[in-house]
């Protein structure tokens, strides 16, 4: 399994680099073909390569992704390594170790009848080309098992996730010479500053009125990327403010969307354009309750530590399967920490126990 993991990690697969994602799909496809005894269906949408295996009439969906957030060349600064019971490398936790565990779990089963495996190539950028594939697969299945990493180093499964929305507030102003006639301009940077405060105010308002969820907590509305202007001596004619939204309920997602579109310019002559909107719907605990209970019983049978459940702010493709009314359990992949960070790692001694748990869970869910 470590040799397979090394092969996946050393084939870089930055989401924005489609040729690298294509190469990665070839490597992942070859690994799956060797362990499952069947070639995958390669699905290319807008240059992004996804892989699918289907055995009989689908009943259980195994969902993962092979793209990562790590730019090409990251292996030079974050090389693959195994030392002191820890595996490291770009994408090792999120989520190439999960793919290895998935394939080996499936290879241990007597039958793959009723199993559908979908490995996408654009999860890290919001699954724009694979969302329809995910939703169609989920609608045909009775369970979705998501191979994202565990919620923490102790291996908690992800039983709830916040939904996500992404916006960009574009400010249209008017350029002018900053030294000779700044009064003739409409400063988009100044207006963007007003909008940063207004957006932050939406987040504060959501918390103040108690829009919350017992497991997922409050909504967050966060201004993130900010840009304005073209040269140092020109009144900025354009500015952009990126906004990250995390919500516990669909109602909160819709309310925030209304508030974002009600934003108005404060600077005379400036105009706003609101781009984006809802991306992934929330995954609420009810969608995972029965599968988590089943996984807990299996862990006890295997003599493993009692499973813990965690609600997390980050979204995954499990949000889509849950919204498609397919019971969904997430976080069944590798155990470790530091996803998307320089410290990303996998605990090797947890690889086999998680694979055994997954194998038995697939077998039970097939029935």
Number of continuous helical runs: 9
What is the terminal separation in angstroms?
27 Å
Radius of gyration: 23 Å
Overall shape: elongated
> Spans with pLDDT under 50 lasting ≥5 residues?
none
Overall mean confidence score, pLDDT: 95
Helix percent band: 25-40%
Class per helix and strand makeup: alpha+beta
Counting DSSP E segments of at least 2 residues, the number of strands comes to 18
Largest sheet: 6 strands, mixed
Widest beta sheet: strand line-up: 1-2-6-3-7-16
Report strand %.
25-35%
Along the chain, the helix and strand elements come as HHEEEEEHEHEEEHEEEEHEHEHEEEH
What does this structure look like?
The structure is a single chain. The chain is an alpha+beta fold. The protein has helices at 2-9, 18-36, 92-107, 131-139, 188-208, 250-261, 289-301, 318-323, 351-365; strands spanning 41-45, 48-55, 60-65, 81-83, 86-88, 115-120, 143-146, 157-161, 163-172, 212-213, 217-218, 220-228, 238-247, 271-280, 309-312, 328-329, 336-337, 345-347. Strands 1-2-6-3-7-16 form a six-stranded mixed beta sheet, with helices on both faces. It has a four-stranded antiparallel beta sheet with strand order 4-5-18-17, covered by helices on one side. Strands 12-13-9-14 form a four-stranded antiparallel beta sheet, with helices on one face. Strand 4 and strand 5 (86-88) form a beta hairpin. Helix 7 (289-301) crosses helix 9 (351-365). The longest helix is centred in the middle third of the chain and has 21 residues, at 188-208. It is elongated.
Key terms for this structure?
367 residues, alpha+beta, 6-stranded mixed sheet, 4-stranded antiparallel sheet
């Amino acid at each position: 399994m470590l040799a397979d993991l090394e092969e996946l990690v050393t084939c870089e697969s930055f989401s924005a680099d489609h040729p690298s994602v294509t190469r990665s799909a070839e490597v992942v496809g070859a690994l799956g073909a060797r362990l499952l005894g069947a070639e995958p269906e390669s699905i290319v949408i807008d240059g992004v390569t996804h892989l699918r295996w289907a055995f009989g009439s689908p009943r259980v969906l195994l969902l993962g992704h092979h793209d990562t957030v790590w730019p090409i060349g990251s292996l030079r600064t974050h090389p693959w390594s195994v030392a002191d019971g820890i595996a490291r490398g770009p994408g090792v936790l999120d989520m190439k170790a999960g793919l290895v565990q998935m394939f080996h779990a499936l290879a241990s089963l007597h039958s793959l009848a009723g199993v559908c495996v979908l490995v996408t190539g654009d999860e890290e950028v919001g699954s724009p080309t694979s969302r329809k594939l995910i939703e169609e697969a989920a609608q045909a299945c009775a369970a979705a098992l998501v191979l994202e990493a565990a919620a923490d180093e102790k291996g908690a499964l992800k039983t709830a996730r916040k939904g996500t929305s992404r916006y960009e507030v574009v400010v249209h102003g008017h350029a002018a010479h900053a030294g000779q006639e700044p009064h003739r301009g409409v400063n988009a940077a100044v207006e963007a500053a007003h909008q940063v405060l207004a957006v932050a105010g939406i987040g504060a308002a959501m918390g103040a009125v108690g829009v919350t969820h017992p497991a997922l907590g409050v909504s967050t509305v966060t201004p993130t990327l900010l840009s304005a202007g073209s040269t140092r001596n020109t009144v900025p004619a354009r500015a952009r403010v990126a906004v990250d939204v995390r919500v516990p309920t669909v109602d909160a997602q819709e309310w925030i969307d209304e508030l974002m579109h009600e934003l108005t310019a404060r600077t005379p002559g400036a105009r706003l354009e609101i781009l984006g909107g809802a991306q992934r719907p929330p995954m609420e605990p009810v969608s995972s309750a029965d599968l988590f209970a089943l996984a807990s019983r299996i862990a006890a049978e295997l003599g493993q530590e009692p499973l813990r459940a965690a609600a997390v702010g980050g979204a995954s493709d499990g949000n889509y399967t849950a919204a498609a009314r397919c019971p969904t359990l997430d976080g069944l992949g590798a155990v470790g920490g530091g996803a998307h960070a320089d410290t990303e790692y996998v605990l090797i001694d947890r690889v086999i126990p998680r694979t055994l748990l997954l194998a038995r869970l697939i077998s039970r869910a097939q029935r």
